[in-house]
Design a protein that fits this description.
Length: 632
Amino acid sequence: MAENGKSGLRQIRTAAPEDESSSNTVKAKTIDELHSLQKKRSELNSPVVGDRVVGLEQQLQSISATLASLTRDFGPKLVKGDPDATGATKVVVAAAASSIAVSDSGLKFTHVFYNLSPAELYEQAIKYERESFITSTGALATLSGAKTGRSPKDKRVVMDDLTKDDLWWGKGSPNIEMDEHTFLTNRERAVDYLTSLDKVFVNDQFLNWDPENRIKVRIVSARAYHSLFMHNMCIRPTLEELQDFGKPDFTILNAGKFPCNRYTNYMTSSTSIDISLSRREMVILGTQYAGEMKKGLFSLMHYLMPKRQILTLHSGCNMGKDGDVALFFGLSGTGKTTLSTDHNRFLIGDDEHCWGENGISNIEGGCYAKCIDLSQEKEPDIWNAIKFGTVLENVVFDATTRVVEYADSSVTENTRAAYPIEYIPNAKIPCVSSHPKNVILLACDAFGVLPPVSKLNLAQTMYHFISGYTALVAGTVEGVKEPTATFSACFGAAFLMLHPTRYAAMLAEKMQKHGATGWLVNTGWSGGSYGSGSRIKLPYTRKIIDAIHSGSLLNANYQKTAVFGLEIPTEVEGVPSEILDPINTWSDKDAYNATVLKLAGLFRNNFETFTGYGIGEDDSLTKEILAAGPIF
Ligand SMILES: Nc1ncnc2c1ncn2[C@@H]1O[C@H](COP(=O)(O)OP(=O)(O)OP(=O)(O)O)[C@@H](O)[C@H]1O
Ligand SMILES: O=C([O-])CC(=O)C(=O)O
Ligand SMILES: [Ca+2]
Ligand SMILES: [Mn+2]
């Protein structure tokens, strides 16, 4: 050890440099003054026209109206800005008619964080939400609490004059009825909770990139996590658009962890997600899972858009360099996000779209990718999107380095990343395209009997669209893991508002009109069911998708499978030919045949509920659709 002073350690200067009073010192006399130099007045927080601060007062009035209790004739007192900021000027005191307060709640202020930037939301999350951390790549890691997925059994819709005859109710429908009074009870509960807080987050944003059918949404929530999630997932308004925002078309009151009251009518758990289409409001009680907001708005679109002859799709969408467009339908976990995010194509969107007169438009401004087992090599674009601004839900990371361990499912299998769509380098902004050439139905078949790819005729496309099949492996519970079939009409029954055949009829009409080809792609098992076979390799699925896009698969040689009657190609470039007919990959052929029949039986049973409905003008298509199922 060098301790003799000649070791090369730098000398410590004790004397002040001679030029101390010159240009290297700050222009401040106190610490507060110094700090105040750091932040310039933000255009976003206080747009100024001339010497007048615009918008603020209107925004606060409007938000106060949003948060008004229905039993009092005025909204809460709102203040813009951070309650904890030192020397914060209470910019504008809003609303609350100058009545005399009759309860304590009328005396207090609630601070409003209006459309904060990601950086500000990070600071709020890190400071006040214990479960928030910055990962090694700059994402905001957080926990969604007790719920790590949606709660479809707690999703209710108000049955009233508007919805009674129009909506899909009863067996198979995701819309559990509730009455208006109960909705208002829950609404009041959410409002009282939110206004009892010192601060709430408010996002004013848009849905749908089609400018003629854009919907204005307001989201009021209690957590920076929720505000950043929606900032990423909805379309972000420009400053000008925000100033002209006016009244929202739809509002979400998200009380997050605050539960519903089990003594309230209809309540079967402490969670309730309630939609009133008449009031154009959604109330969330007892779940912090942010996907409820995303998919609640998707349900809304499933009601609003078909009224305008626009079809809503639970699908991804991308476009080739030559302008060819593909849709990717599929239930959760089947590959919409993974396969629509393609380095060689432009991304229109990964999950929710509209198909109207002029083509496809994305409903959202962001993507929501599954992260379990995410790898840089297999999904580079998604990997690289996980950076500053991205919300990472329920992932596990190294306590010191903050490096995320994507293989770890200790919190949940459903780990997720929510990022703005422009984080994908080849996203097409604005997110609109022409009509699709290919409609790809994705199924993750854990039984391992559906072919990796089949070409479908229109009737088959409709049969499989209405069936909405996938089979994932049941949970991660110890013991035997049997695949269970899931059928979800239109690959998104959980979000449908009208009867599935109404969407199916629109899809058939549009596919016919625009000459789109249907495909069924199995992204699940090959070589046996779950347990003996293995999941089809992602690079093979990508090759199959490439061949669909390029048009080469359209003209390949085909053969027909027994039972399901699917047309399968004999060759696909880059894919071993022997896997294209699944029977080749099973060593036990009897087991294969038995499994095909088992799955066919499940399809048939499921389709029985639809046999009484017609699709299209006459009954010819309906008959063809019924005949397009498995024959055995
Ligand atoms: N052959 C394959 N094809 C597609 N995805 C695969 C394949 N093999 C494994 N995977 C994995 O399956 C998952 C597909 O999930 P993805 O996020 O694309 O689902 P999604 O359809 O977008 O669902 P959601 O609607 O819930 O967002 C990814 O984790 C992906 O890595
Ligand atoms: O909504 C969610 O939680 C995830 C999703 O995209 C889906 O389930 O389709
Ligand atoms: Ca997705
Ligand atoms: Mn989805």
